[in-house]
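[job 4471] stage=fold_predict status=RUNNING
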Amino acid sequence: PGRSSGEAMAAMEEFASRLPHGIAFDWTGLSYQERMATNQAPLLYAFSIFVIFLCLAALYESWPIPIANMLMLPLGVLGATVATWSRGLYNDVYFQIGFITTMGLSTKNAILIIQFIKERLRHGEGLIEAALGAVRVRFRPVAMTSLAFFFGVLPLAIATGAGAGAENAIGTAVCGGMISATFIDLFYIPLFFVLVYTWIRGKGSEGDIKKEQTKEAV
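[job 4471] inference complete, writing structure tokens
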């Protein structure tokens, strides 16, 4: 009780490794499906990142600008990984669910900030001024929405009883990811946006940005 299926399977594999030579084991049923799902995790992560990028490109109506948002993904998933590791949990299918959820949530806060930076740019502010001003103005909304989600998921992270292992894995990953994504976003999103925006202009794509700004202003 209080353990996830991934932890139980890891314990059984560790025990089976000490069996005499010539004795083997294999998984069947739901355990086999869970092990196969674990092996397919890298492909699932890559597909999730691709879908997130397409959604951001549709939102911003631009291909380069979502790069600033996507740069937050490693910082968000780092918090999920560290939180899971610190509690001694395993990389099972439930952790992977929380991991993918964190990937989406990491971009949510960045969307709020980047949209406001673009709004201030359309009103004629400088790039650095717009980036810093957007963070100051959006700090409270970002912090409040993130804290609300954090406390909403916290019961999963501290759940006990039957099935608590699966709930702990999901809740811990999401809570850790939200903490890191929220507070790191506020510092790094302005930096990443300025770098990407400057890179776009350096590559001769400034016309696309001006066209986008003119269209939104109209």
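[job 4471] summary: The chain is about 80% helix and 0% strand.
[job 4471] exit 0
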